[in-house]
C-alpha cells in the first residue's frame, strides 16, 4: 500500500472529469514537515501552533516560537504553510498557564478569546510569525472566531506589529493573508460580514460538528450518534462553501472529515476543492480523487440536500456510488 501511494505522489490530484482537488497537510511540529516530500501534498493547510506550547514545560519565548515557524517555512519552501494562532484552552490545557476551573471548557475561555483578552501572548506570537517570515509571504489563521469583530481586532494587532517592524527597519512579509476558521455555528449566519474582511477561510469540522450537534467531540458516547455528513451538517458546510465562492475567497476544510474517504467525497460533492488532513490520509484520498467522476455525484448529493433524500442518508448514497465504481 505504502509503495502504491508513494507512486501517486507526483501525479496532480485531478478527478477524471477535470476538477482540481488541492490536498494539504495538517501538522504542528517541524518533524512533520519533511513528509510533504513523501506525500506530494501542496502545502500545510493547518499548522497547529499550540503543539509547541503543549509539549513545553513553560511558555515558549519569542525566539523559540520564531525558530519553529522559520524552520517550518524553510522546509516547506515554496509550499504555503497556514499558521493557526494559538488554540489553547478547551481540551488543550497548558499546565503552566494558570486557568480557572471551567464547567464547559470547550465553550470557555479559550483560543482567540484568550488571545484578545491577554494581548501580550497574541502580540508575541504574531511578532514571532512576522519575524520568521523575514520578508516572505505569510498566512495566518484565526481559530474559534465567534463574531466578525474578533477577526477585525486580530487584524489590528497584526497591522500594529507590521508597522512596528517597519519602523525598526526590519523586513515585513511580501504578502500577508489573514484567514478565519469557521467552527462556531453563529458565524454561519454572519458570513456576509466576515467574508469581505477575510483573505481566506477554513472550516474546522471537529468543532463545527461538535457545536452544531451539541455533542462533545471527545465523548464518543454522544458524538458517534451524529453523522457529521448527515443532511443538516452537510447543508451547513455547503452554506459556507457557497458563500466563499460568492466572495471569491479560498476555502479549505481542515477538520478530520477531510481525511476520511467517504466524508471527503461528500465535501467534494458540495464543491469543496481544498482538503487538509493528516499526512497518512493523502495517499488514500488522492487515489479516490484520481478515480472519481465527480459531476454525477455532485448532482445526486445536490438533489438530496435540497429535496431531502427519501429516507436514504448521504452516507448510504455515497457508499452506493463507491460500490458501483469498484
Ligand atoms: C477543528 O476544529 O476541526 C480543527 C481543525 O481544529 P482542532 O481540531 O485543532 O480544534
Ligand atoms: Mg477547532
UniProtKB/TrEMBL annotation:
Localisation: Cytoplasm
Transmembrane portions of the chain: none
Family the UniProt entry places it in: Belongs to the PEP-utilizing enzyme family.
Name assigned to this protein: phosphoenolpyruvate--protein phosphotransferase
Species name: Devosia yakushimensis
Amino acid at each position: 500500500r505504502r509503495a502504491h501511494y508513494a507512486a501517486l505522489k507526483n501525479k496532480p490530484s485531478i478527478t477524471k472529469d477535470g476538477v482540481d482537488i488541492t490536498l494539504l497537510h495538517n501538522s504542528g511540529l517541524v518533524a512533520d514537515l519533511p513528509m510533504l516530500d513523501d506525500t506530494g501534498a501542496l502545502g500545510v493547510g493547518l499548522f497547529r501552533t499550540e503543539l509547541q506550547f503543549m509539549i513545553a514545560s513553560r511558555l515558549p519565548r519569542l525566539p523559540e516560537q520564531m525558530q519553529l515557524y522559520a524552520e517550518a517555512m524553510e522546509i516547506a519552501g515554496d509550499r504555503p504553510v497556514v499558521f493557526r494562532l494559538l488554540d489553547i484552552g478547551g481540551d488543550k490545557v497548558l499546565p503552566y498557564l494558570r486557568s480557572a476551573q471551567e464547567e464547559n471548557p470547550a465553550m470557555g475561555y479559550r483560543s482567540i478569546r484568550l488571545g484578545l483578552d491577554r494581548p501580550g501572548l497574541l502580540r508575541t506570537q504574531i511578532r514571532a510569525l512576522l519575524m520568521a517570515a523575514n520578508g516572505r509571504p505569510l498566512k495566518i489563521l484565526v481559530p474559534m472566531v465567534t463574531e466578525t469583530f474578533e477577526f477585525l481586532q486580530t487584524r489590528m494587532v497584526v497591522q500594529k506589529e507590521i508597522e512596528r517592524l517597519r519602523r525598526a527597519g526590519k523586513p515585513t512579509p511580501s504578502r500577508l493573508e489573514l484567514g478565519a476558521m469557521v467552527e462556531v455555528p453563529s458565524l454561519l449566519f454572519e458570513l456576509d460580514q466576515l467574508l469581505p474582511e477575510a483573505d481566506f477561510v477554513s472550516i474546522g469540522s471537529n468543532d463545527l460538528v461538535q457545536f452544531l450537534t451539541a455533542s462533545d467531540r471527545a465523548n464518543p458516547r454522544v458524538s458517534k450518534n451524529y453523522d457529521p455528513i448527515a443532511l443538516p451538517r452537510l447543508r451547513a458546510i455547503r452554506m459556507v462553501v457557497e458563500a466563499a465562492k460568492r466572495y471569491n475567497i479560498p476555502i479549505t476544510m481542515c477538520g478530520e472529515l477531510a481525511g476520511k474517504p467517504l466524508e471527503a467525497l461528500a465535501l467534494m460533492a458540495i464543491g469543496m476543492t481544498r482538503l487538509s488532513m493528516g499526512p497518512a490520509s493523502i495517499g488514500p484520498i488522492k487515489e479516490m480523487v484520481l478515480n472519481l467522476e465527480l459531476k454525477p455525484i455532485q448532482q445526486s448529493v445536490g438533489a438530496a440536500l435540497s429535496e431531502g433524500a427519501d429516507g436514504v442518508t448521504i452516507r448510504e448514497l455515497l457508499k452506493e456510488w463507491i460500490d458501483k465504481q469498484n
